[in-house]
Amino acid sequence: MSSELWVLVSLLAVLVTAMAVAAAVVAVRLFRARRLLRDAGVPENKKIIFWGALLYLVSPVDLVPDPVYLDDIGILLLALRSLHKAAADAGVPRAPDR
Predict the structure, then answer these.
(1) Number of folded domains in the chain?
(2) Highest mean pLDDT among 26-35, 59-68, 75-84
(3) Could you give the C-alpha distances from 68 to 16, 18, 39, 72, 85, in angstroms and in order?
(4) Is 73 contained in some domain?
(5) Structural domain that includes position 80
(6) From residue 71, how far is each of 64, 76, 93, 95 by CA, in Å?
(7) Is 2 buried (19+), middle (13-18) or exposed (0-12) by CB count in 10 A?
């Protein structure tokens, strides 16, 4: 292969890895938000958002094919936002970011 092709393949590998790491970071934050809501009196329908986001993350059916995790990251961020809003509505203090 030519050197330009190697550079392109390497760049794509770095981008895919960066998107996978970003999805993993957002998934960890989603788990932390769920832990906040576990016994806070938040309605069960708000907690279902967590499971829906995780199901979408591992689902083979995506809006965008899986080497591109932008749709997965977007769904996880929306779920995280919804869980934090549900926690705020329930009066749960927000945990500091680590």
Answers:
(1) 1
(2) 75-84
(3) 7, 10, 35, 8, 28
(4) yes
(5) 3-90
(6) 6, 9, 29, 26
(7) exposed
Question: Could you tell me the two tokens for 68?
Answer: 């591109």
Contact 86, 46 (CB under 8 A): yes
The pairs formed by 21-27 with CB atoms below 8 angstroms and a separation of 24 or more are 22/69, 22/73, 23/57, 23/69, 23/72, 23/73, 23/76, 26/73, 26/76, 26/77, 26/80, 27/54, 27/57, 27/76
> Does the residue 15 lie in any domain?
yes
pLDDT digits over 6-58, tens only? 888 888 888 888 878 887 887 787 777 777 777 666 777 777 887 888 888 77
Distance CA 11, CA 14 (A): 5
pTM for the full predicted model: 0.59
